[in-house]
Amino acid sequence: MRRPExxxxxxxxxxxxxxxxxxxxxQLTACGNxxxxxxxxxxKKVKARDPAPIGPLPEIKQIxxxxxxxxxxxxxxxxxxxxxxxxxxxxxxxxxxxxLRRKEELEGFALDSLRMVGTLEQNQTMWAxxxxxxxxxxxxxxxxxxxxxxxxxxxxxxxxxxLTEIVSENPGEWRERQATVALTQ
Length: 185
Fold this sequence. Notes:
- It is a single chain.
- The protein starts with 11 loop residues before the first helix and ends with a strand.
- It has a domain at 91-182: SH3 type barrels (Roll).
- It has helices spanning 12-31, 37-48, 85-90; strands at 115-122, 125-131, 137-140, 145-146, 151-156, 160-170, 173-182.
- The relative contact order is 0.10.
- By secondary structure, it is an alpha+beta fold.
């Protein structure tokens, strides 16, 4: 038959919560002072004081009015019709990055900061191993995106990753550019 264990005879780690609770309750009861007459007297003195006078408000500086005289210049509050024709002329390009596509993690890094460190084939799919500047290893395949220029992976070999990037030539005008991330030794 086993005897019940005395909670005070346990190891030091089991006695610690009891000891902390006892010390806290002792400390809280020692801090209490039922006689707070000095605090109440001080509060009465502060409330009995006359309030200090409020200083004068600072003077508001007058700002001179300005009347816009456009003359030969365009009115800044009217839409400029000359700029509206420019995007329509470039609209036939049809090449542009998808603004609604969710960005992948490796698109937050410049392409030259990413390092290809190897390849891996799994279930007839070729994967490339990419190391980011902070040392994290990522696995990518054809169709994933890399770099900050909408670079989509179009091919993976044992020695390099081939990308097609979509870069801006002029506002609203895009072109494709080929890029490569080579295996680093």
